[in-house]
Structure formats: C-alpha cells, structure tokens
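Table 4 source record.
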Amino acid sequence: MAETDDYGQKLERRWAENFRGQQMPVSDGTQYVRAGGSGPAVTLLHGFGDTGDMWLPLAELLVKNHTVVVPDLRGMGLSSHPEGGYEKVAQARDLAAILDRLNVKDGALVTHDIGNMVGYAFAALYPQRVDRWVVMDAPLPGIGHWDDQLKNSKTWHFNFRGPDVERLVAGRERILLDRFYNELSFNPARIDEATRNHYALLYARPGAIHNALGGQFAAFAQDAIDNQQLLAKGKLAMPVLAIGGDHSYGAKLADEVAFAASNVRSAAIKDSGHWIMEEQPNQAIDLITSFLRE
C-alpha cells in the first residue's frame, strides 16, 4: 500500500487475515479489490470521504459465512486514476466485470453515499445479479426529490472542482475532509484522529481529489439522465433496506429510494449523522446482518 500511517498498516493487517487485495482491470485502469470468504456473496461499496476501509468491521463478520467483495471505487482509495468513466452506469459495468473475474454470479449489495449510486445502476442494469440491497444515507441522482438536494446548502461541494480548486485543496486534504466529517456527523468525535488522518493520506494521493471532485461528483448530471432512463424500464423488485442516520436522512431515505424500488423498508440509526459506519457501527452491523439473513 502507498500510505504509511500506522493506523492504515493496522487496517491492512486485519484485512490480510481473511482477504486478498489485488488490482483488477477495468475500463482504462484498475480498481483495488479485496475479496475473501465463501458462501453467498455480498459486495460492499463506499462513498466519498471513505474507501473500502470503512467496511472492515462489517466485512470481518460477514466473511465467516459469505463471499465478501470490497472494491475501492474508481479513482478512489488504492484504485488507479483514469480521467473518465465516472458515470455510475459505467462503474456498474466495471463492477460486473470484477464480479465475473471473481466468479460471483449474484448476491447482495451494501452501499453508502456514492456507493448507492453505483449500486443502483448495477441493480437496474443487472437485476438478476442482486438478491437484496442495503442503501445507506444518500439519495439517487435524478430520482425522487433529487433537485431539492441540489439546492441544499450542505451540498455545495457537488460543483466544487476545477484546476484552481485542486490547487486550493492540495496539501489541505485533511481540512477539506474535516468539513464533511464535522458538518455531516451527529458527533464529530466519533470520527477519530486516526481515521481522519488515514483518509486524508489516501485522498492526498496524486489524482485522488481530481477524480473525486472532477470525476465522481461531476458525473452527477449525467447520472441523473441515466437514472431516469433506467427507471423508465421499471422499479427494482428485490428487497431493499434503506438506512439513514437519525440526524441525517433518517427513515425518510426510504421514501426517496421508493421512487426507484417497489419493496423498500426503512431503518434509522440512533445518534448518527451521515457517517453511519464510523458513528454507530454496531447498530448498522446489526441491521445489515439481520437483513442479509432473511
């Protein structure tokens, strides 16, 4: 791994106990993917401000009786940094290719933030490959009340990009990420210094901020168009659990997801904002594992 923080090395040692990490070919680049275990498959997709590392507490439990696949999203974490291909339908096709290489035909999805958007595109393009879906604390571009999201003062970062923005952020990645951790959490102290420094190092990697702001976020407009076209073919039919932090989307996230899926139930995490796996991991793990056992 490229970063050398002690916390990151501890995480890597924990991953290595049950998972193999490798760079896997995707369109115009590679994605870093950890996979381990055997049994019914579960794919875990992270969002901005995190990498696949956010899922470690859940993955360590699931791997005991599941095949668990944990990619770093395109241009994020330890994945490579191609210039294009950040539309979520494109990333969904890359995910299908990754799962094919791992001989995973179908399984469950567990997603958070931008991972939700890739997850929806995957489930809509390949519904036969998704048994059930856990979607956490972010809506979907172009679906439901997405336009209201664009007017929310907390989402100014959706259009925060460009060469001068990148010069402004360079060397200050920790400050940028602190804004998200502090403003979008219920209790910022739940996201500790080691976690913040670890992700700051990963987002300081060459190309990482460029790909996040100018890739993942910049694609939202096209994602909205693509999602409307996917939705026109019909709602998702698989069971969906929509989880929101009670100081973020809360139980109302299910109302948004229900615009895209017909079998949605809701759950709220107590004393949590957006960063559910960092703020209240035990509550989240209990809900997710219970849903996957059904």
